[in-house]
Write a structure and sequence with these properties.
- The chain is α+β, with helices and mostly antiparallel strands and about 140 residues long.
- The protein is about 35% helix and about 30% strand.
- The chain contains 4 helices and 5 strands.
- A hairpin with a 2-residue loop joins strand 2 (about 40-45) and strand 3 (about 45-55).
- Helix 3 (about 105-115) runs antiparallel to helix 4.
- The longest helix is centred in the first third of the chain and has 15 residues, at about 20-30.
- The two termini are about 25 Å apart.
- The model has no long low-confidence stretch (mean pLDDT about 90).
C-alpha cells in the first residue's frame, strides 16, 4: 500500500493547556489507528504543526475534517507528497509540547515552526522537509 505524508500548520484560537493537548492526542490516537494513519503533532506558542502519514485518500478526508476543527484557524498545507516509508511508524499520534522546553530536538523544532509560520526556507528546503529529515535520521 502506498502512503503519503501531509504536513500542515495552523494557529490555535486560544492558548492550549497541557490538558487540552492531552485530549487532542488521545482523540487522535483513537481516531487514527483504525484509519492506518500515523504521525506527530507539535505545539509551540499558539501554533500547531502536524505530520500525518497514511493512504492519500484517507489523509485528504482527514485533513478536510481537521480544517473545520474550531480549536484552530488559518490552516495551510505545507507538504503533501508520496513517501517511501513512514517517519513516525510507531505512533498513531505523538505529541510534543514545545512550550515546556523539555522536548528532544527543541531548538530545531522551534526553528521549523518559526520558518513555517513565515514561509521561510531552512537552508535549501521547506520547513516541512526539514521536519521530516529531522526525524528520519
Amino acid at each position: 500500500m502506498s502512503i503519503n505524508q501531509l504536513v500542515y500548520i495552523s494557529q490555535a484560537v486560544r492558548k492550549m493547556s497541557p490538558a487540552d493537548l492531552s485530549d487532542i492526542q488521545d482523540k487522535a490516537k483513537t481516531n487514527n489507528a483504525p484509519l492506518d494513519v500515523t504521525g506527530s503533532l507539535f505545539y509551540n506558542g499558539g501554533w500547531f504543526l502536524q505530520v500525518l502519514e497514511g493512504p492519500e485518500s484517507t489523509l485528504d478526508q482527514l485533513y478536510r475534517k481537521i480544517e473545520h476543527d474550531p480549536r484552530h484557524k488559518n490552516s495551510r498545507i505545507l507538504y503533501n507528497e508520496p513517501a517511501k516509508f513512514r517517519t513516525f511508524p510507531r505512533w498513531s499520534m505523538s505529541m510534543t509540547n514545545l512550550n515546556d522546553r523539555q522536548a528532544d530536538k527543541y531548538d530545531e523544532l522551534v526553528e521549523v515552526l518559526e520558518a513555517a509560520q513565515s514561509n521561510r526556507r531552512i537552508g535549501a528546503v521547506s520547513p516541512a522537509v526539514a521536519l521530516l529529515k529531522l526525524f528520519a535520521s
